[in-house]
Amino acid sequence: MSESLSKIIKGAIIISLVLVMGLCFAPQVNAATEAWSKNSSGKFVNDKGKVIKDATMKGVDVSKWQGNIDWKKVSKTDVDFAIIRCGFGDNIKNQDDAYWEKNVAGCIKYNIPFSTYLYSYAQNTTQAKSEAHHVLRLLKGRDVYFPIYYDMEEGAQAKLGKTKVGQIANAFLNTINSQGYKSGIYANLNWWNNYIPGSFSKDVAVSKWVAQWDSNLDYKGSANMWQCTSNGKVNGISGRVDLNFWFGDYNASWYKRSITVRSGITVTRPGKTRIKSIKSGHRKLTIKWKKVKNAVGYKVRYSTKKSMKKYKTKIVKGKSVTLKKLKAKKRYYVMVRPYTTTVEGKRLYAKKWSNKKSKKTKK
Questions:
Q1: H or E element: which one contains 228?
Q2: CA-based nearest residue to 238, from 361, 65, 108, 112
Q3: Going residue by residue through the chain (363 aa), what tens digit of pLDDT does each one get?
Q4: Would you give the DSSP letter of residue 152?
Q5: Which run of H or of E encompasses 348?
Q6: Nearest-angstrom CA–CA distance, 193 and 349
Q7: For 75, how many CA atoms within 13 A lie in the half-sphere containing its CB?
Q8: How would you classify residue 325: left for phi > 0, otherwise alpha for psi between -120 and 50, otherwise beta?
């Protein structure tokens, strides 16, 4: 064997030994651990395999862009919760998310805790309140199991300045809180750092959902939830989906509504009203009554019997109503009872009906 060939063989042996030793002593990667999932120790990890500190739950946020979701399949994955978009902008039906009801029904059926968010276009506090009522209309008094989030990322809002942005955010959050829900703000890291007033970052009553599509979250405040990627893959959801991690403790009862609102506002039973007048018309009666504080609506009861037997009812929002298609030249007795809404959107009525008044209809 020539000296040069001997050197080549020795070199190959040395290289082989180095490779083998490297394989033996290199850190072992759990092949079963996927990005943004749990490792063998039950800890959530990022896309680099590093543990995400304080992450306790994994969730998705979805909208019509995910199309039809197979929530049964999702329920069998490591997804713990869902934040579902209910719509965008003012309280207008054609701005409801087309898949809102379907997604809510899927989460309820397969016991996936959920809440909602609304994408904001508000330029003033009036629009912000309308956007809050957009959410409340679609919730229909349902309990949700995480805060309700206000999605603030619209370029036109950024131009308004921090003070105006803060006023808009407060108008939305306060309206949501007044109905017994918890609320929060969703925004990307740039928005949290440059467009949202610092007071919101420090306010523990405001849940903070921060979007930063990166391996780590660099938000300096105390985030409750982190949207880490828009490139997630979840069985049951076609294509890409946003993934999120909840930090710290979680208790569903913290977010469910109660008669006594956690923000300190109490739902108060309305008092008794008084019928002011009844005007007669052709087979109709127009009734007016005194407006009552805290009432959101009124139940009108009417009957041809003074005892109010075989009565009919009508629910109205204002302080008057015209009852039509009545019997001609017939005396009707009328009473009114105010109500407000409480837990689960149920009606809480005044303890007593109004005074009873009567009037004959005309021919």
A1: strand 225-232
A2: 65
A3: 455 555 555 555 555 554 545 444 444 434 457 999 999 999 999 999 999 999 999 999 999 999 999 999 999 999 999 999 999 999 999 999 999 999 999 999 999 999 999 999 999 999 999 999 999 999 988 889 999 999 999 999 999 999 999 999 999 999 999 898 999 999 999 999 999 999 999 998 999 999 999 999 999 999 999 999 999 999 999 999 999 999 999 988 888 775 443 333 446 788 999 999 999 999 999 999 999 988 888 999 999 999 999 999 999 989 999 999 999 999 999 999 999 875 445 688 999 999 999 999 998
A4: -
A5: strand 347-349
A6: 46
A7: 13
A8: left
CA separation (Å) from 291 to 107, 136, 183, 207? 40, 24, 31, 37
Quick one: tokens of 290?
């005194």
Tokens of 27: 């850190």
The pairing of beta strand 275-281 with beta strand 284-289: antiparallel
Reading phi first (left if > 0) and then psi (alpha if -120 to 50, else beta), residue 23 is in alpha
Per the rule left: phi > 0, alpha: psi between -120 and 50, beta: everything else, 134 is alpha
Structure tokens at 181: 């829900």
8 Å CB contact between 299 and 337: yes
d(CA 337, CA 313): 11
Nearest to 332 by CA among 313, 298, 355, 306: 306
Neighbours of 18 (CB within 10 A): 10
